[in-house]
């Protein structure tokens, strides 16, 4: 028998989240449904996770087929078909091999290890505004001093330099010490900031010259979010490793590192491991998610919706004294305000629209990729009214 939740039940959860809003009990399409039946248009999508929305038939069918197989977990001691098929699907677009884990932070931690083993060097270079996770190495590469300070000392040899500063990058990335350079092609937590293609190309050249691995952290911006399978595709720059997570498992916990053949050749059995990563149940679901997102028609629809939404937000920025700038690509947008964003996030929630922040002054919009134009219109209108 399932007992109804009460307001006191939340006290059993460790208080590292300041949860807000109602108790959500269901979801459908682009809506989250509260216990009283109220629908909230969701421009958060589980923080860019629920790319196919709620109650997706693609995911439901994949889950049922995965259950029918009887294989939820086997461990990586043995071969199973779903993980191998998923690796083959992901490496169609990136020549190399895949390692599966459980989250974006784990993916970045693993990528740092792989870079060190391959390069035989130690140092990591990251950039201002970055967010790469909250484990010890990924947190060291995250530009949030308040997050890092209580847990220092973190991983040694990590340097955070100004984003876009070629002179600083030239000095920091050296043949003697640099194992890896990590960057988000579109920063997420740092304020939704697309990185210039020219700077990504410069980092590629610098890593090639110095023998360091270039890592593109596409945990939030990757897998269709910006209208291409990888957010870096328009730049033409190919990294040595991609790190992926958020939408990959369709809401189930899953991350991945896509590794170039050269770096893969430096790794041997026992160099890294995971108990749950790439298990048959989650891999079968992830395979259908990736196949759906990778369809050219699906990506074209994301781009079209993103162009419409971007035009709407840029028009808002030109006429609103509160909106300093609208930034983004595809269905990943940030509205930088002239004041704190949190009160406007709360006001939007009162009008049954869910958005979130990306730093203190930026409203972040990352809806399901399956959202309709009408739903985007409704959400944009609510945001305009809240910011008026």
Keywords:
single chain; alpha/beta; 2 domains; Aspartate Aminotransferase, domain 2; 17 strands; Aspartate Aminotransferase, domain 1; 388 residues
Describe, in plain words, how this protein is organized in 3D.
The protein is of the alpha/beta class and 388 residues long. The protein folds into two domains: 7-55 and 297-387, Aspartate Aminotransferase, domain 1, CATH 3.90.1150; 58-294, 3-Layer(aba) Sandwich (Aspartate Aminotransferase, domain 2), CATH 3.40.640. Helices cover 36% and strands 19% of the residues. It has helices at residues 45-48, 57-69, 81-90, 104-119, 136-140, 145-148, 166-172, 197-210, 261-264, 280-294, 296-319, 342-350, 373-387; strands at 24-28, 31-34, 39-42, 96-101, 123-127, 158-161, 178-183, 186-187, 193-194, 213-217, 241-244, 255-260, 323-329, 332-337, 353-354, 356-357, 362-365. A seven-stranded mixed sheet has the order 4-12-11-10-7-5-6, with helices on both faces. Strands 1-2-3-15 form a four-stranded mixed sheet. The longest helix is centred in the C-terminal third of the chain and has 24 residues, at 296-319. It is globular. The N and C termini lie far apart (48 Å). The model has no long low-confidence stretch (mean pLDDT 96).
